[in-house]
Amino acid sequence: MVRLGQGVFTQARLDPAAVGRTLEAFKSFREAMDQFHVKKVIAFGTSALREASDGEILLKRIQEATGIQVRVISGQEEARLIAKGVLAGEKKRFPSSRVALVDIGGGSTEITYCEKRLILQSESFPLGTARLQQVFLQSRKQGDPEPIRNLRRHIRSTLLPKLIADDWGKAPLILGSSGTIRTLGKILRKNSKGSGEQFSRTRLSQLVERMIDLNTLELLEIPGMEPKRVDMILAGAILFEECLQAVGAKNFRVTEFSLRDGIIEEERQLARDTDATQVSLHIEEIREKALKAGAQQVHFEKVRELSLKLFDRLTSLHGIDRRLRGHLEAAALLHDVGEVISPSNHEKHSHYFVKNADFSGMQPWEAEYIADLCLHHRGGNPPVVRTRRKKAASKGDKAKTPDEELQKLAQAAFPALLGILRLADALDRGHRGNTDIKSVRVTNSAVTIQLDTRESLDLELLRVEQKKELFESVFARKLELRISR
Fold first, then answer.
1. What is the value of pTM for the model shown?
2. Contact, 409 vs 324, CB < 8 A?
């Protein structure tokens, strides 16, 4: 534990001692990599690096000292990877009923609702053991109840508005990951006569009440307590107790799987599917870049939603390889990013941004392909897309690699994907996010789309008329829109 979050959540800067520990750890990693002849390394940064104003300086120092590139991931991507790790690791004994996955880190807590191994909702909250300890309990005097009350109020005011507003509902069981929750499970197990895997919220509350009045030496005497976590265990225990309360869980079970397992599972998936594109796996990073560039979130989220609905409901008609769905999704997120530079001819600025941005796992031809979709989303005849081709291993070897085969499929699919993107963009012409696709019906002569809205769509209908030519040409059917209110 390098405790990189030390001081970050009150000072917004990295502590020099924590920086030193982190650099030493990375140098140790480098030595191990060299010893075992490692060919590939993946390094992710989370909440401390997301918030530290001087985080980029540390990343540069790590790369200069070790050659390791650290990618700082968003809270949403962190939540996704944690869920992926738990779902993969708990495959054989995952509950059939609704369950909340909770991971408590130093600076953030990720909560994901699952039912029958399907993810329902997922969110990252700025709550963590180091953050809460630094802000609320750092200078607390033993026996003073006010900091505890303030801490609980803060946790509830952070969790409940999101859970209630988005109607998350209740989850009777929590699967808890991370060191803090594992330590709490170990303490409860050591202090229990039973041997069951599940622990009740009541027992956790009793432990919290007991720990509130103990000093550090007394905390260390609790069976199962980990010395390296003793200074933050109270903040973590209260946070976890409030998480159980917020989601309505009466019990929790500890899982050994977490973020690192999600990262490994994603890489294993890529290794198994060598012909798969990484674009869809890094959609959250693409979305984050669109947000940071200043793109209108309401609009690009709606265009993404409409594009994917059209792609999925027209599958029988277009027959496009599903791997290219991620390229359409990326283009939907990025198509208007150039408006930040200039609303006039913004598609050209979007094209330049996408083509030159550094997207993890994206091949150069994929960046150009998505950039071309952005460039032509406003109208006009689609270009002939020429994707780069790798040289064959020898002059006599004409067999295509999986990547080359995907490029060929992408080239053929370009007009159809562009037609879908143009239609989705037109359906949110007012950038209000108020249009939804209720149904799509395909006949030999027409594609009929039933729209659901409570507001006037006059502007959108006019824009569809202006942009539907390519869609009708590609799918050889008349486009018809019907509105239900």
1. 0.60
2. yes
